[in-house]
């Protein structure tokens, strides 16, 4: 090729590249999004904005790229992998949320914040994320990073945090952010979590204890926590056709959960009934026939009373100071209270929980 012609070609190509580089990017279309199989855990995905960070994704079976989807970002204290999402998948299907778990974010890493921000940016760029419905979750140090993410996105109205085994800093959080906490009865962070929830600004936040030490909650409790946060969001969504359809679908699924458990496990059915009431401010939902019927059940009445005792015990003995795992662990007063409440509530599913909460916390 003639040198002068070659020079013209190179010059034109350079101009086109320069124009492309300076042209503002539009919103990605469905064809631009990551092509991933639904209902299965993805392979490891490198962040396009910084390939040294990566994450795994789970798309619910109902996923399609032509609408926006809520996203739950997950952090593990030892670094995440595809299996980290297993306990969240039932909740992802029920609530129709995308899951994303960070690989590199973990305890003791000086750059633990950078892989999280890279993951969030990448997911929100390469998948149809509903940026008004972002959630975070994690266990231990991962829970602290879940709180941190909500603080960083405070101005964007971050929707919710599902924290397991560690607390956050309520004064830095938006009052719009709901929090659902899960903590082992003998977790050394039970004081930290109780103090966090005492100071949270969002009145819909809730702390639940389970029998165990410093560990993840099981899939059933995590599914319930995800549903609770979803109910809080659906309650405040504009009454547009799509939102109404989504809320009706969610209410139907929760009603199914209530019906399945009403006879065999009325305490569980009651929990789902109050989750249902959380999804709507309408008196007709809050006083649904299912809830009214359950409240007439003696087992449910005993359970409601026992749950009030749990809350009072936590306020009295755990919502004191986060450092009490060192300075005030397993006091005689707590043990006496726990034994008394275990005896009082011996016919409920919470009797063992009271006994364990009266014992010292276990540090890993």
Describe this structure in words.
The chain has 364 residues and is of the alpha/beta class. The chain is built from 14 helices and 8 strands. The chain has helices at 3-22, 89-95, 113-126, 141-152, 190-199, 219-236, 241-261, 266-278, 283-286, 289-295, 298-317, 324-327, 332-344, 351-357, and strands at 45-46, 54-58, 69-75, 98-102, 129-139, 160-164, 178-184, 206-210. Strands 1-2-4-3-5-6-7-8 form an 8-stranded mixed beta sheet, sandwiched between helices. α2 runs parallel beside α6 (219-236), α6 packs parallel to α8 and α11 (298-317) runs antiparallel to α13 (332-344). The longest helix has 21 residues, at 241-261. It is globular, with a radius of gyration of 24 Å.
* Biggest sheet details: 8 strands, mixed
- SSE topology string: HEEEHEHEHEEHEHHHHHHHHH
Identify the overall geometry.
Answer: globular
The rounded distance between the terminal residues' Cα atoms is 72 Å
Beta-strand residue percentage: 5-15%
CATH class of the largest domain, named Alpha Beta
Query: What's the arrangement of strands in the largest beta sheet?
Result: 1-2-4-3-5-6-7-8
Write the layout of secondary structure elements.
Elements (H helix, E strand, L loop, with lengths): L2 H20 L22 E2 L7 E5 L10 E7 L13 H7 L2 E5 L10 H14 L2 E11 L1 H12 L7 E5 L13 E7 L5 H10 L6 E5 L8 H18 L4 H21 L4 H13 L4 H4 L2 H7 L2 H20 L6 H4 L4 H13 L6 H7 L7
Parallel strand pairs: 3-4, 3-5, 5-6, 6-7, 7-8
Antiparallel strand pairs: 1-2, 2-4
């Amino acid at each position: 090729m003639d040198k002068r012609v070659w020079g013209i070609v190179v010059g034109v190509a350079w101009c086109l590249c320069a124009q492309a580089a300076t042209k503002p990017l539009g919103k990605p279309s469905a064809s631009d999004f990551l092509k991933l199989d639904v209902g299965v855990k993805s392979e490891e995905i490198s962040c396009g904005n910084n390939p040294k960070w990566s994450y795994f994704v789970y798309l619910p079976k109902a996923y399609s790229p032509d609408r926006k989807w809520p996203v739950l970002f997950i952090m593990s204290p030892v670094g995440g992998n595809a299996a980290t999402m297993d306990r969240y998948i039932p909740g992802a299907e029920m609530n129709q949320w995308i899951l994303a778990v960070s690989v590199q974010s973990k305890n003791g890493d000086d750059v633990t914040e950078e892989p999280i921000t890279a993951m969030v940016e990448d997911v929100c760029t390469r998948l149809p994320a509903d940026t008004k419905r972002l959630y975070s979750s994690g266990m231990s140090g991962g829970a602290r990073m879940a709180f941190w993410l909500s603080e960083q996105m405070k101005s964007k109205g971050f929707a919710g945090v599902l924290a397991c085994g560690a607390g956050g800093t309520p004064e830095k959080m938006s009052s719009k952010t709901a929090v659902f906490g899960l903590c082992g009865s003998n977790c050394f962070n039970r004081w930290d979590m109780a103090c966090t929830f005492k100071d949270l600004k969002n009145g819909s936040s809730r702390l639940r204890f389970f029998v165990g030490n410093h560990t993840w909650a099981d899939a059933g409790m995590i599914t319930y926590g995800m549903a609770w946060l979803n109910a809080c969001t659906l309650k405040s969504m504009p009454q547009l056709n799509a939102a109404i359809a989504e809320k009706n679908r969610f209410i139907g699924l929760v009603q199914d959960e209530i019906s399945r458990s009403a006879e065999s496990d009325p305490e569980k059915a009651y929990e789902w009934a109050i989750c249902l009431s959380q999804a709507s401010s309408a008196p007709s939902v809050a006083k649904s026939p299912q809830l009214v019927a359950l409240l007439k059940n003696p087992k449910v009445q005993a359970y409601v009373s026992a749950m009030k005792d749990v809350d009072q015990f936590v306020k009295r003995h755990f919502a004191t100071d986060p450092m009490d795992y060192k300075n005030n662990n397993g006091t005689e007063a707590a043990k006496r209270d726990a034994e008394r409440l275990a005896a009082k509530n011996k016919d409920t599913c919470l009797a063992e929980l009271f006994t364990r909460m009266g014992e010292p916390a276990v540090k890993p």
